[in-house]
Amino acid sequence: MTANWRLQGVQRPFLIGSGIKDITPREQLEECLSAIAIREPTVRAFAYIDIEGAWVAADRATERRLAGRSISPIDGMVVGIKDIIETAAMPTGMGSPLYDGWRSGRDAASVAALKEAGAIILGKTVTTEFAATEPGSTRNPWDSRRTPGGCSSGSAAAVAAGFVNAALGTQVLGSIMRPASFCGCFGFKPSVGGLNRGGSHDAFSQSCTGVLAASLEDLWQVAYEIVIRAGGDPGYPGLSGPPRAPVAKKPSRLIFLETAGWAGASPEGKSKFEQAIADLRQAGIEILTRADHPDIEAVEASIAPSITVSNLINDWEGRWPLNTYRDRDIDKLSRHMRERLERAEAMSLTDARAALSQRSEIRRQYTKLAALCDACITLSASGPAPLGLESTGSPVFAAPASLLGAPAISIPYFTVESLPLGFQLVAAVGADANLFANAAALCELIANS
Amino acid sequence: MTANWRLQGVQRPFLIGSGIKDITPREQLEECLSAIAIREPTVRAFAYIDIEGAWVAADRATERRLAGRSISPIDGMVVGIKDIIETAAMPTGMGSPLYDGWRSGRDAASVAALKEAGAIILGKTVTTEFAATEPGSTRNPWDSRRTPGGCSSGSAAAVAAGFVNAALGTQVLGSIMRPASFCGCFGFKPSVGGLNRGGSHDAFSQSCTGVLAASLEDLWQVAYEIVIRAGGDPGYPGLSGPPRAPVAKKPSRLIFLETAGWAGASPEGKSKFEQAIADLRQAGIEILTRADHPDIEAVEASIAPSITVSNLINDWEGRWPLNTYRDRDIDKLSRHMRERLERAEAMSLTDARAALSQRSEIRRQYTKLAALCDACITLSASGPAPLGLESTGSPVFAAPASLLGAPAISIPYFTVESLPLGFQLVAAVGADANLFANAAALCELIANS
After folding, report:
1. CB-CB: which of B227, B317, B319 is closest to A349?
2. For A339-353, how does the pLDDT look when each residue is reduced to its tens digit (9 = 90+)?
3. Which residue is closest to B313 within chain A, CA to CA?
4. If you placed Cys at A184, which of A412, B92, B224, B247 could pair as Cys (CB 3.0 to 4.6 Å)?
5. Fold for domain B25-247+380-447?
6. Where are the domains of chain B?
7. SS in 3 state form for A167-235?
């Protein structure tokens, strides 16, 4: 089996076994700041760093650790916050000149929860403009000529470069899976509504707050510590699962979903993925494909237009606040954003309802797969990070889970053209904990191969 | 039949017959400003008035009117915006010293839509602190010793006092029905998700943006012009119905829901309501009660704890941003808010999920009534506005529709102790248009009685 991505630069996981790191939060922060001092000038993952605040938090966390009074398993963890999410101590720039230096005066629900759990909020990580298309300054840590992916660009790059233990991201189309894949870290997008988005400026119905980190355990723990304190989105039960990362459970049956991305995926990526499937079968896991069951074929057909349907919904739901930003200062909106607003304003309520109905129907189709498998698997992206910083790459492999509102994990699994490429698992809505258990089993298989 | 509330001070409806008022928007604004000059010092409905901006908008609307190029039926309508909803041209104070003078720099989705439709945004109407319990400065226009109700206090008072043609409110428990009832204007809370709440700071799962106005036609038109431009909440289809207020349709069968409020309602209010039921029966409308069908009895039982269940959900969902406001400056939170936060922080995610499950079950019960009736009817409040400004009165009659996510209309129907008291209609979720048609029929019955 292909070796897991042992990225020399990636911060080692925060939670080791017992969940208590063998270095103090102060030492942890020192490690992060050293990596930042060396590589941030190239990677440009941060929109803002609050070193002073981080030291205060690290001192307190260290005191608690030494006194045996740690608040949570992530007490002292160094965390980055995607700059679309509000923070009281730091500006929230949203990747837009309209919000340059803007201070909301409050923490988002997720940030308040992380602080309550003892995490050290080190900085704001670069986002594309309003978490959409227009790239920010960040470069891929493995090759600065390449995109880190978007829109949680800075979060993925910061984790991969060892600047933070974990970072918050958001995904409405491909924005956690893709940068996790390109940067070679773990990424988790929970079931829709899983983590409270209060104070995060991505008010789309299929957007989610998620996590990027250096291990599955860290991914889970960060998400868990948020949900128990802040809940899910209003009206949602929120991410459900145990207080520590679910124990590995080998799936008995997985479905390989080609998605619309397979035809255009990198040949080496496809070949590596096919080898992984062979390895998993070798390990006794049954793998079904579209040829094996009409329900799988039906789901493949229904998710094929995931990007188109998602874009219709996101355009409509993004009409506001873009229209009011346009009225304020159109010159501060990128061409991408102006075009998006034009598309939205050309839509009618009837068009929007049609897209929502189509999504409901696609989601209904997808529920049938739960009876057939433990989870679905596919690539996290079409290939390794493409050259160039003008585009954040294709979201084609990530879009289906976003449209479905389904939980997804990207594992840094493959090496393609000497760059990372992710292995994506997608489960039924609400089956987040089981997805983690299956992902952990796959990681064990890799480690033992 | 009891006479409809012909409030001498209430601004006459904006839409008359053809929907084009017989006075120009400038004259309309003059009327509103005259009323404000005389009565605002006592009523105190506004947190902020933008006279200059209103004149500019009125001039433009007047030009369009005279040129026969009105944008919409509400082009030139004078509107107030509850001060929990963001406005680009005016501060958004949220009834809290924490947001005194705060400018978000953008319009909420609903406000942007109203402006696109040509409405004149005259000012921000007083809200209770963060649209919750702590009263603002507003007094009841019919007796300044009495509460206007909350939390859309200023919106209801401004409409009733003739300061505006219509105003936006929000309801999470009783905040449109109650002030509409106490102030003697029409109020509409749509089905949950009906109007886009982007930029409105009431991020509760059962909260809705709604409308207060001087006629059913105005209520509908304001809501309609918002939804076609801004949609519903992300992921929701939004308020559905015709481009002009639904034509009156006499209901064949209504259900009288006592709710938990009936036992404690004012004797005169109850007697008037019973007389109204007799009148409706006289007019050939069948009225069922809990004694007539086990499903009605089951719904009465299930909605009895509406306030308790709503408060649990609202407390949990309001933990954020109150926790971050507390961290910022606890002295600027009222005792009510601090207590609410304490209750929220004493809750666990499990408690919150239990309350959400209970709400789902109550909603499921309620769906059975759709097969039995056109709509449900009850009082809008326990009685006329109580004396005193320390409390906004009981939300007991309004809470069920809030919990159910069901559309509700309050008609200024009764005179009790020489004060207004509302007649409330509640329909199935999504049946907003039919509710308006039924309400229009009841108004015709009143007018002809």
Report:
1. B227
2. 999 999 999 999 999
3. A235
4. A412
5. Amidase signature (AS) enzymes (3.90.1300)
6. 25-247+380-447, 306-360
7. EEEEECCCCCHHHHHHHCCEEEECCCCCCCCCCECCCCCCCEEEEEECCHHHHHHHHHHHHHHHCCCCC
